[in-house]
Structures are given as structure tokens and as C-alpha cells.
Specification:
This protein is α/β, with parallel strands linked by helices. Helix content is about 30%, strand content about 25%. The chain has nine helices and 15 strands. The strands form three sheets. A nine-stranded mixed sheet has the order 5-4-1-8-9-10-11-12-13, sandwiched between helices. Helix 4 packs parallel to helix 6, helix 6 packs across helix 7 and helix 8 packs antiparallel against helix 9. The longest helix is centred in the middle third of the chain and has 17 residues.
Length: about 325
């Protein structure tokens, strides 16, 4: 498969993207002042459906791309999480786990929107390759996996099997490394080996640094693009840099925005990029601009999923109520 300006890009006809990975219940805590240790701190606290892969699927479906998502939740939560994803147009194939609880994360947001996360992945750890029906990956335009699927041995086996299925069928794979902390645990060389052959990679600056040992995002993007082919390194408020085949293609400068909560910003960037990429009509740097537009919306409120986002005739993203 080839696309204009993007090594390994998809064919012009837009087809279904299959996303496999974590579904999480987020508890997002935003203190309203200095944290008082060993006592009370007034806070804004919200509960949201989340999970990096599930968030990305929702953002991508909100752009109009057909998306099928496969993941695991507690059996009692299948209906709730299915409905939450279907609200954005996702074809959710959730497996109900009778033994494990749905994954949970407590997210502590600081005044600048940065996050500290306490993670219990729950039922996500029981995902197996057989949860993804034969033919689903093989008939997809793209398979997307989050890095969380590679950090635990059991789920890693499933992710590697799915990548092999995609490779045999000629289906490109995109990978979001997802967690600098977990990358340090498993080791950069191991993660690069496990994800070898992926057509696209979407690390943030910290993740790119862990994977390459290189500090400058431009240099890290160039290094990683020799491994993956096409890489977009997100840099928070500084925007993103894009490289392909070992060469820097350019950067995206993000418009200033008051960040409320950065949860889901990387997932939104990935979705905006893949929306353009799967259309086969957009250069890689333009796809990164589309990703940055969605990421800007993601940081403007608490939680990691979109509002009802629609594309206007001028190409801008606005809520349906605007």
C-alpha cells in the first residue's frame, strides 16, 4: 500500500481501522489549590470512560473514519462501555471478563494540565489474540496498537500475534508507545524489537527520548523513522515534529491554549493524523497539523475523549453545538 508523501501510506479509499488495546475507567482529580498532605484538599473530580486505545478509537471515529475496537472490561461493564464508544460511532467489540474488574486509573492533574497517573489495568491484562476474530485485522486498512499492549507478557503475546496477522495480510500497523515509565521498565531495545515493522509510530517527547536516548525531538524523530518509516513526535504545547525514512519532514507549531487536562491529547493527535493518513490524500506534515488541531481540543477540558466533534467546510474542528 502506498500513499502520497507517506512511506507505506494507505490507498486512497478510506476503509476500516481496527484498534486493539486498553479500556479504562478514569478518575480525574484536579486540585483547586495547593495539595494538603494528610488532610483535605478541595478538588474537581470527574469520572470518565478512558484508556489510550479506546480514547484514540473514539477520536478517530468522531472524524468519520470507520473504526472497530476490541478490548476487555469486566462483564458487568460491557453494556456501559459499549454504549460510551458507540456514541462516537465506534464499532465496539468488548469481551466481558468474569474474573477481573475493568481497568482503573486515578489521574492527578496539576495546574498546567500535566498528569500523574496511578494505574490498575484490570481486565485489559487478560486480552488474547483470539479476542480479535479472524478476518477483522486481515480486512482492515490499518491496525493500531497502544504501547500498553506490549508491557505485560500475556498481552504482549496477543499484540505480537496480531502484528504477524497484519503483516501476512499486508495491513500496515501503527503504534503509540503510550508510557515513558513502562518503556523504561521493559527496555527500549526490547520495545523496538517487538514493534519492528510498524509503519507509523506516535511517541511523545519523553517516550521518544527513552526509545532513542536522544534529547532533541527532531533528532529522536529522525532516528526512530529509520526503524518505523514514519514518526510523529508530539511535544505538548510546543507542537510536534515529523520524520520519515531518517529525514526530518518538518514541525507543527501548536497554537497557544490554556491546558486544563492533557489526558487523551496524544490519542487525539494520533486520531487526527490517521484520519488524514487513511484518506490517502494528505502529506505527512499536513496530517500532523490535523492531529494537532484535535489535540488542542483535547486539552481544553477534563477527560480523554471528544465532545461531539464535526468537521466544518473550512476544515476546522468544532463541536456540533457551535
Amino acid at each position: 500500500m502506498t500513499g502520497r508523501g507517506v512511506p507505506g501510506g494507505a490507498e486512497p479509499d478510506r476503509r476500516r481501522v481496527v484498534v486493539v488495546g486498553d479500556v479504562i475507567d478514569d478518575i480525574v482529580v484536579r486540585p483547586q489549590g495547593a495539595v494538603t498532605h494528610d488532610s483535605d484538599t478541595r478538588s474537581e473530580i470527574v469520572r470518565r470512560e478512558g484508556g489510550s486505545a479506546a480514547n484514540m478509537a473514539c477520536w478517530l471515529a468522531s472524524t468519520g473514519v470507520p473504526v472497530t475496537f476490541v478490548g476487555r472490561v469486566a462483564a458487568a461493564d460491557v453494556e456501559r462501555h459499549t454504549a460510551a464508544m458507540e456514541a462516537f460511532g465506534v464499532d465496539a467489540r468488548l469481551i466481558g471478563d468474569e474474573e477481573r474488574e475493568t481497568g482503573r486509573i486515578i489521574i492527578l492533574v496539576d495546574p498546567d494540565g500535566a498528569r500523574t497517573m496511578y494505574t490498575d489495568r484490570g481486565a485489559n491484562l487478560a486480552l488474547v489474540a483470539d479476542d480479535v476474530p479472524v478476518g477483522l485485522v486481515e480486512d482492515a486498512a490499518l491496525l493500531h496498537l497502544s504501547g500498553y499492549s506490549f508491557v505485560e507478557p500475556g498481552v504482549r503475546e496477543a499484540a505480537l500475534t496480531l502484528m504477524a496477522r497484519a503483516r501476512e495480510a499486508g495491513v500496515p500497523v501503527s503504534v503509540d508507545p503510550s508510557s515513558a515509565a513502562f518503556l523504561r521498565e521493559v527496555g527500549a531495545a526490547e520495545f523496538l524489537a517487538w514493534t519492528a515493522g510498524a509503519a507509523l509510530c506516535f511517541p511523545n517527547h519523553d517516550e521518544a527520548h527513552v526509545l532513542t536516548g536522544v534529547e532533541r525531538p527532531e533528532d529522536a524523530a529522525e532516528a526512530l523513522s529509520k526503524h518505523y518509516g514514519l514518526v510523529a513526535v508530539t511535544c505538548g504545547a510546543a507542537g510536534a515534529v515529523v520524520a520519515a525514512g531518517g529525514h526530518l519532514l518538518g514541525s507543527v507549531v501548536q497554537e497557544p491554549v490554556a491546558a486544563v487536562d492533557s489526558t487523551g491529547a496524544g490519542d487525539a493527535f494520533c486520531a487526527g493524523f490517521l484520519d488524514a493518513w487513511t484518506s490517502g490524500q494528505t502529506e505527512a506534515l499536513a496530517a500532523a497539523h490535523a492531529g494537532a488541531a484535535l489535540a488542542r481540543d483535547a486539552v481544553s477540558r477534563m477527560g480523554g475523549r471528544p465532545r461531539r466533534v464535526v468537521r466544518q467546510g473550512d476544515g476546522a474542528w468544532r463541536t456540533a453545538a457551535d
